Amino acid sequence: MGVVLMQHRKPICFHSETFTSVVVNYLTYDKELYALVQSVKKWKHYIMGKETIIHIDHQPLQYLHSQTKLQQSRHYRWMGFLQQFHLVIRYKKGIHNKVANTLSRPIINASTIIKHNSVIHESYIEQYTQDTNFKDVYETLSHGK
Predict the structure, then answer these.
(1) What percent helix, strand, coil does the chain show, rounded to 5?
(2) How far apart are CA 100 and CA 15, in angstroms?
């Protein structure tokens, strides 16, 4: 799973984790809901008391707050937790949610990511080339070395 916390359209935190053997066997809906719960737990101190817009690539979750029937006991627990927050859930196709989508994919060579600029937010490229600590690394990776 991959999650990005953004403020004013700029990423401020990233989180990525591999599902446990139990979660891997969940249905897609449950995996997506689990990822939402985990990300809210991780950043609850940032979002508590504030309206938070969640962009998620699993369309059924945009109706999460209007569901009247929950299927599993874990859904009750997760919904009880999520109700503490003012979350606005919006559907956004994975292809348009590139940073989070990239974080949820298997690990690949960093030079491959840099060569395919479509998966890197444009502001990152500018920041990489200007950062004194990362400039040399970015230069090396962008040339495929």
Answers:
(1) 50, 15, 30
(2) 9
Contacts of 141 (CB under 8 A, 6+ apart): 110, 111, 114
What distance in Å separates the CA atoms of residue 1 and residue 94, rounded to the nearest whole number? Answer: 12
Q: Which of 81, 92, 90, 91 lies closest to 42 in space, CA to CA?
A: 81
CA distance 135 to 129: 5
- Rounded Cα distance between 96 and 132, Å, is 30
- Both structure tokens of 144: 């495929």
**Residue 49 φ/ψ region, left for φ over 0, alpha for ψ in the -120 to 50 degree band, beta for the rest:** left
pTM of the model: 0.64
Query: pLDDT per residue over 128-145, tens digit each?
Result: 677 776 677 777 777 765
Q: Which residues contact 126 (CB under 8 A, 6 or more apart)?
A: none
DSSP 17: -
Q: How far apart are CA 106 and CA 141, in angstroms?
A: 19
Tens digits of residue pLDDT in 70-84: 778 888 899 889 999
